[in-house]
Write a structure and sequence with these properties.
Elements lengths: L9 H50 L7 H22 L1
Length: 89
């Protein structure tokens, strides 16, 4: 039974340290960037949802409630489009 260890080559050790010095910081920066991007996305989504829920009552218009006004608005819009389109040519 032999109790000898084989020597390691210096090229393999320097290669491992190079991978550690380059790969580990790259992975850490990537992970931090992904976490930061996800955090910003979630905050933006929450802010947008809160704004949408605050503005939703303002834009929930039902034309069936006041058909005469809805019809009048359509006529005014059509007339405005005709006037602005005819003035250009």
């Amino acid at each position: 039974m032999s109790n000898r260890t084989s020597p390691t080559s210096p090229g393999a050790a320097s290669s491992d340290s190079l991978v550690g010095y380059v790969l580990v910081p790259f992975v850490l920066v990537t992970v931090v960037g992904v976490v930061l991007a996800l955090t910003m996305y979630v905050q933006k989504k929450r802010r947008f949802d809160r704004l949408r829920h605050r503005l939703l009552p303002m834009y929930s218009y039902d034309p069936a409630e006041e058909p005469a006004e809805a019809e009048q608005e359509l006529l005014v819009e059509a007339e405005d489009a005709r006037v602005s389109g005819g003035g250009r040519g």
